[in-house]
Amino acid sequence: xxxxxxxxxxxxxxxxxxxxxxxxxxxxxxxxxxxxxxxxxxxxxxxxxxxxxxxxxxxxxxxxxxxxxxxxxxxxxxxxxxxxxxxxxxxxxxxxxxxxxxxxxxxxxxxxxxxxxxxxxxxxxxxxxxxxxxxxxxxxxxxxxxxxxxxxxxxxxxxxxxxxxxxxxxxxxxxxxxxxxxxxxxxxxxxxxxxxxxxxxxxxxxxxxxxxxxxxxxxxxxxxxxxxxxxxxxxxxxxxxxxxxxxxxxxxxxxxxxxxxxxxxxxxxxxxxxxxxxxxxxxxxxxxxxxxxxxxxxxxxxxxxxxxxxxxxxxxxxxxxxxxxxxxxxxxxxxxxxxxxxxxxxxxxxxxxxxxxxxxxxxxxxxxxxxxxxxxxxxxxxxxxxxxxxxxxxxxxxxxxxx
Length: 403
Fold this sequence. Notes:
403 residues
């Protein structure tokens, strides 16, 4: 087989067809992205120079450009024009407390967090992000009566955002074609958003004690999410991605997933397919009881298969149950194996992943991310790429170049 472009190789994997070699595409690569000054176009070039396959993700706005939703990639989040926000700091024993209050036509919402030394947002509490969940003294949403106010924070994309996105999409399509890489967009969101709003422990209890309340909240998120999807899918993109780190059985029962998450997930998968895009689903732990539900939903690729830190992750079972219909993306622990392991451990992990999940319908990646910018990490990255290019496949070696 002739050598394929990175996009062709990735599409063949997503379509469960044999590639010229197993794609090696990092689902997230913060260490390299920071070297590229958070420019995703430069990141793609740097990844390709290393010998990696790559994906250009749009919108490309970086975390500092998303102050209200730093952990939710994608279109800007807007509130209703009649929403007024007040933030203030309270001096308190045990650490200062930040408060944020939203005044809406449907009532008031309030959030409070206890500050820690690693709090990254100054005197600001974002609408949603990971940091505030573990530090929250008062999550934003705690009861059904607050949904009336919350709807004013879930506004569809504004016309200006759609115009800006169309311009970016045109630039991204031209770049992706020139460099032969896959174009992806997103993120979609479901239970992850509910966990941000309610807090993880609170939401687990609410799903048991007040399931109808949580279902109504998820429906509100779903309607908002689909409107955002429609804009991103207009690019068009090859792959639409939904973040679902909090949708595994670590956080929700399989029964509640089927009742509350699956119907809405399936509707979003159907929308992506109607617009000609594949649907990617990021969940790196607690997936085992959900596998048949993934088949029912019709997802095209399960992203984030972590054999070390992912609870209930069985590589052989994943391939046996999903492998005929769903591409599998991951296979190696980023934090444990690549950032902390030896060269021998990296090679063994790659070999195991390829043997269990490959060679077709498989994209190799550290899971979830490579964040440590140290010599051992970069050496292990070279080892991972080298091993992925030749182990058990007869594919030609790709010699990575230092970044």
